Amino acid sequence: MEKMEENKSKQNNVKRPKGGMIAMPFIFSNEVCEKLAVVGFYANMISYLTTQLHMPLTKAANTLTNFGGTASLTPLLGAFVADAYAGRFWTLTVAFIIYQIAMTSLTLSAIIPQLRPPPCTGEQVCQQATSGQLALLYGSLLLGALGSGGIRPCVAAFGADQFDETDPKQPTKTWKYFNWYYFVMGASILAAVTVIVYIQDNIGWGWGLGIPTISMFLSIIAFVLGYPLYRHMDPVGSPFTRLLQVSVAAFRKRNLTMVSDPNLLYQNEELDASISIDGRLVHSKQMAFLDKAAIVTEEDNVKAPNLWRLNSVHRVEELKSLIRMGPIWASGILLITAYAQQGTFSLQQAKTMDRHLTNSFQIPAGSMSVFTMLAMLSTIALYDRFLIRIARRFTGLDRGITFLHRMGIGFLISVLATLVAGFIEVKRKQAAVAHGLEDKPHSIIPMSVFWLVPQYGLHGIAEAFMSIGHLEFFYDQSPESMRSSATALFWTAISVGNYVSTLLVSLVHNYSAKPDGSNWLPDNNLNKGKLELFYWLITGLQVVNLLYYICCAKLYTYKPIQTPTKDAESEEAASKV
Length: 577
Description:
Keywords: Membrane, Transmembrane, Transmembrane helix. The protein is mainly α. It has three domains: 212 residues, Growth Hormone, Chain: A (Up-down Bundle), CATH 1.20.1250; 84 residues, no CATH class; 237 residues, Up-down Bundle (Growth Hormone, Chain: A), CATH 1.20.1250.20.
């Protein structure tokens, strides 16, 4: 009787649903609220800093790009914690709570008058924020960056974890998940840059920041409620530790003579089983100095190796693959630098232009990024439905074109985006001069804001090619045990790109200043600046970067991998004999 009850309980445990589509409502509900919160909070933040805290434009722009850079660097920390210690669920939960605290404190600064400078009207000199008010701002942004560090590398991967990879139908379900994930994310971002930004500009910052804060709280509730239904993947150790072990082992054996036959290098399939499910990496000729980490000496115990002295070929090739990816990773930095200007200077351009759709309704300047999102989503749809099929006829590749080609197209379109942006700025300033508004920075120039749509749209098309190609590259070329950390590497490129933007803006602002007060990037009057020259400077840098990328792409060596199919077949044949 006891055995029957025991068997019954075991059957119930087996049948209890874990992961799969049943977990998706909780994950997608979380994603809708989280993206609505995060994007709604920061899409129009340049306006909050300049109009509510009275920051100079360049200082506000640098504050946001510094925040963006830090928020894109912390995912390395989040990925390490998730992979090595906490797992994705608990990393996400803690990160959501930290982000909630950051958003709540900033919302309070918008509601409580004592936490921000007094308002100013007309052309009077505005009082800037005090050190205490700035401390609250910077503390909130720092907490937001820490929260992003746990959210960005884990949120998409946690959803993919809900599907069992041993299930033959898993690939279809995973790709379906990612399609829905990006659709939900895009729809949420569109809602944020339209509805939330409109509320911020026309109703007030209290509601404009309060609604995203409430949305973040709801996202945490939705996420935690799904806990019993999730598949929880145990942390299996950080890949960064393995990379360090290979480096230390190679350094320790730096004086050894390299073996003549690569087959003599250390192999241990049992040791590497958990990190080589999709196939083992085989020896490559590049970076031979790292191969010394796999040379077996008399001091080494091959059955239970000290990984700080001896590593398998597979682990050595993991590090080689990561190093090979470095130059391609670096090429994405300047595209982010160009893209970052949409949230700062392009937004300021929009604020000076006629944004009316009707006599009573005008587009909020912060909502101009909706054209970037629409262009990006439309390009992704066209690429998936039509361009891949056309390209497949010429290349024979299932994906149409390689991710390296896709990235190259994105780079080229980004060059066009900043080139066009410069010409549109020239026209905007000409309109300001023609209507006598050159010295009136707060006046609206009678020129439609839709003149900015080409530059916003081109940036969206560039992102559809470059950013997704970049992610494909990281996923395909990174070792399988590091794919969860590959997203973090992607975000580090965004981080550096934002920091480069800060550096570039600061250098141009300082070195273009003249004794008469003129500046390429003036703090208060964009009509008196030379923003077009700044855009064309970025265009020139991107041209150089495109040439650099072409060289890197031509010289790039794809990771050498041996799939387990043939080995499995040979073992099966041997067992039959």
